[in-house]
Amino acid sequence: MKTLLNTLLACALLVLLICPAVQAADLENTLYLELKDGRVVIEMRPDLAPAHVARIKELARMKFYDGIVFHRVIDGFMAQTGDPTGTGRGGSGKHLPQEFSEAPFDRGTVGMARAAAPDSADSQFFICFAPAHFLDGDYTVWGQVTSGMEYVDKIKKGSGQNGLVRDPDKIITLRVAADVQE
Asked: From 90, 112, 113, 137, which residue has the greatest number of CB atoms within 10 Å?
């Protein structure tokens, strides 16, 4: 019995050491995205895109994203937000240099939207509903949804090829987890 107990304890310790999902979150690099249906937790990736993560945190702390709509939502592809005008043409006014990486655009990946120029990303970002590997290496990956993807799936979808949304869903709040007291 004692051997079995020691084995179980050793296994539990091993899981805690090697499984990132079980480890405590890095609250400074975690975002809480509050949507109408619930909380989405995003793990930011400063190892891949330090300038983008720093800017997203700066904007979140300014409450820039609060109330901003998901203006472009394409079923089976992604939900895009971050434009204070709601047209898809606006931003915060500060362009970021590209930080492309080998990280794939899988379900739940959070990437930076941009115009045709690689260094044109600003405040707009998107969350992938499904793998979008045609974006790999051409857009900046800066985060990954770690919980609440079922709420992202419920964001109102747009119509037509461009996915523009009538009466779109909004971000309620976007906060750096380290700043949230629960």
From this structure: 112
Q: Which residue has the tokens 């993560």?
A: 53
The domain of 111 spans 28-179
**pTM value > 0.70:** yes
Q: With beta carbons less than 8 A apart as the criterion, state whether 126 and 109 touch.
A: no
Q: How far is CA 117 from CA 55, 59, 127, 163, in A?
A: 19, 22, 20, 21
Average pLDDT over residues 116-133: 97
The CATH number that applies at residue 34 is 2.40.100.10
**Closest to 175 (Cα-Cα) out of 74, 64, 46:** 64
Count helices and strands in the chain by DSSP H and E runs: 3, 8
Q: Determine, yes or no, domain membership for 155.
A: yes
DSSP-based three-state secondary structure for 44: strand
